[in-house]
Amino acid sequence: MIPATRPAPLTLTHLPRDFTWGVATASYQIEGAVAEDGRVPSIWDTFSRTPGAIANGDTGDVACDHYHRMPADVALIKSLGVDAYRFSIAWPRAADLSFYDRLVDELLANGIQPWATLYHWDLPQALEDAGGWPNRDTAYRFADHAATVFERLQDRVDTFTTLNEPWCSAWLGYATGVHAPGRRSPQAGIDAAHHLLLGHGLALQAMRALETRPHTYVISLNTGTANPIADRTIDHGAAYRADGMGLRLYLDPLRHGAYPADVVRDLAYQGITIPVRDGDLELISQPFDMLGCNFYFGQNYAGTDEAGNTHDASGAPVVRAIMPDTPRTAMDWAITPSRFTQLLLRLTRDYPGLPLVVTENGAAFDDVVAPDGSIHDDSRTEYLSAHLAAVAEACARGADVRGYFCWSLLDNFEWSQGYAKRFGLFHVDYDTLARTPKQSAHWFRETIERTRGSR
Ligand code: IFM
Fold first, then answer.
1. What is the model's pTM?
2. Which of 31, 165, 393, 414 is catalytic?
3. What is the pLDDT along the chain (455 residues), one digit of tens a residue?
4. Closest Cα to atom 1, ligand 1: which residue?
5. How far is the CA of 297 from the centre of ligand 1 (A)?
6. Ligand 1, residues at Cβ distance < 6 Å
7. Which atom of ligand 1 sits closest to the CA of residue 29?
8. What domains are defined for the chain?
């Protein structure tokens, strides 16, 4: 039962006519079945068993049990009226890809385009034991994985994304240790970042060598925005530094074939070097077709600490994140839709000629299931509505945005937050694994229908 007062569906007249509407998920977050069909352990299987690493001690062992419920989940996707479904291939399942054969066939039979991501953080544990992403060889192993998947699916899948959010894999996984494998070394984080980018380049090369028809290649990055907290030179500097570590460190080598000089200098000051070898930047900067933008929130930065110091104890400049004083999601992320427009226009300006696609956007809220079983998640609907309007505005002002994928189809395993944070358009009851459409799911379907109907 949907209340009559629910937020009205949008009509987004400025989106391009052939805009792709979709929903997204990732393997470890939804599949479960971690010991089936030859799947080998991943770094997330190990990390989730590390005491204290994940809220409530949750693991992805069962997750949403999507591995066994896939056809019913494809029916949910179809019910949304989307064009495409973005999912990731579990590298630990490389020995038996038949699940993805079935998934792709089911999607196509239902008129849904499959968008496959080759790496969404579930590195096989054996590769971590051999050194993980800080080890250069992992980039070559990733290219092998890409080739295996591509050979199997290229006849039916048009769009392949190499990496999802390499900043998270590198920095959260190896520098801060918040994500698997939980290492805490900034040098390892930078080594991982370079080898992820190298892996992207090698994977593109491997897939292109096997192509029997043209495909669309994407890489999805964390694309937040970094603004100065005030109009002081020191705050502009802090925001620029944050943008350097979060975005330019990835996008400059991909598009300009060089690491940003200011970031290299800052890292060198901390004794950190990027392990570039001859030819790496040519591989990394080979063309790809669309930049996947994963946007959740914008951030403000100050160049001073609370006491007014401009440098920390190690002598490094202060880069202090200050969340804007705005409403938050359940992740404690500020809700900043105008920053989304800012981002898309900035990417258009600084990286011209690169079509954009929103490969993730969405929000976690503390959903309440009403006694009749319905979920009136107005906050999520308002978040999606404001962010879609921000995309449409960017399009009206010249950004070339080709599509929008809502994160996420289902409530799922939210990494270090376990199952406590819910991003889904469909609610998952983790006792029964029943799926229930939230009000936002109905709103999303109506908005897609309305926007299509306005053409
Ligand atoms: O759940 C994640 C996803 O795996 C990657 N991007 C951000 C989402 C929300 O945190």
1. 0.97
2. 165
3. 444 456 777 778 899 999 999 999 999 999 999 999 999 999 999 999 999 999 999 999 999 999 999 999 999 999 999 999 999 999 999 999 999 999 999 999 999 999 999 999 999 999 999 999 999 999 999 999 999 999 999 999 999 999 999 999 999 999 999 999 999 999 999 999 999 999 999 999 999 999 999 999 999 999 999 999 999 999 999 999 999 999 999 999 999 999 999 999 999 999 999 999 999 999 999 999 999 999 999 999 999 999 999 999 988 999 999 986 789 999 999 999 999 999 999 999 999 999 999 999 999 999 999 999 999 999 999 999 999 999 999 999 999 999 999 999 999 999 999 999 999 999 999 999 999 999 999 999 999 999 998 87
4. 414
5. 12
6. 26, 29, 165, 294, 360, 407, 414, 423
7. 4
8. 20-453 (3.20.20.80)
Q: Which residues contact 339 (CB under 8 A, 6 or more apart)?
A: 224, 225, 227, 295, 297, 298
Distance 414 CA to ligand 1 centre (A): 7
Report the alpha-carbon distance of residue 241 to residue 223 in Å, rounded: 15
Assess contact for 31 and 87: CB atoms under 8 A: no
Do residues 80 and 25 touch, judged by C-beta distance below 8 A?
no
Tokens of 138: 């992992």
Q: Which two tokens stand for residue 232?
A: 């002081």
360 catalytic? Reply is yes
